[in-house]
Fold:
Amino acid sequence: MSTTWHILGAGSLGTLWAARLARAGLPVRLILRNQTRLASYQSAGGLTLVEHGETRTYPVIGETPDSQEPIHRLLVACKAYDAEAAIAQLQQRLVPNVELILLQNGLGSQDAVAAQLPQARCLFASSTEGAFREGDWRVVFAGHGYTWLGDAAHPTPPLWLDDLHAAGIPHAWSTDILTRLWRKLALNCAINPLTVLYQCRNGGLQDHHCEVATLCAELSELLECCGQPAAALDLQDEVERVIHATAANYSSMYQDVANARRTEISYLLGYACHAATRHQLNLPHLQQLQVRLVDELLARGLPRD
Ligand code: NAD
Ligand code: KPL
Structure:
């Protein structure tokens, strides 16, 4: 009998994972915030996934955090700023050797969760898949991509990667997941804040080539200093490639700001600036970028963190 996948966070990525795992006949349970959300979910009849223009609803079982069933495997699909508190609610239900898969973008939340649950196995994920919510319990699979999974403490892959294979979730085991997360963080720091400040699509940054190059130089210095030289390799080339390849897209941070949603700044640019301070590194353009971004968020009435 397969271990149940408990999924915490029925948003874009949580729904995308839940629907595909359920579609493969694997046991899945969705943990919703409270009884009100559970009632709303139940009246919708399940999770709806829109993929290649086709719409299908999956009647995944929903529950609230105070349900009694023990949790052996937990996919954490909340935003980085919600992860710790959301997991804390489940503490009584986690078995001693529980496995957590942390889907959060950026860095910082994973270490906070690992410190919160020293007995758990925490796997980190970095994903290039893209999904967005079209409404309550309805998600569009917008960008096919890949998910890298790894465990900074143990290099051995878990057997349940077979479940991902069965579910058609493109993935690979990574023995350098921290390098991947740092690299993605650097890409996000070089692109996302500027798209908010210039109110442009990613391609609009082609008009700000020098500023992007300066940020990449500082980010590379930071990565080297943080013991991540592989994440610094040819950073600027990759940033330029991504800007070109995603020229028509709006960055995730741009979309958060445009929709008046809290951003994950503290786990991206904020984390980078904090690491620079810890290493007594002077990175003036990166620090200035953070000041400009925080001012912009405050001016729009959004949280600064
Ligand atoms: P989302 O906002 O769509 O979903 C998060 C869900 O978590 C929401 O439904 C929210 O209600 C729920 N949640 C928060 N606190 C909770 C709690 N205490 N109990 C139960 N549910 C709770 O976010 P998302 O877009 O799916 O992103 C999740 C993470 O994945 C982020 O770190 C994001 O950066 C990363 N990511 C997202 C995408 C994407 O395409 N959406 C791609 C790559 C990475
Ligand atoms: O991941 C991204 C995002 O928008 O968050 C890209 C497309 C790489 C831009 O930084």
Notes: The mean pLDDT is 97. The chain has two domains: 5-175, 179-299. The pocket of nicotinamide-adenine-dinucleotide (ligand 1) is lined by residues 8-14, 31-33, 77-80, 82, 85-86, 89, 103-105, 127, 129-131, 133, 264 (CB under 6 Å). DSSP finds twelve helices and twelve strands in the chain.
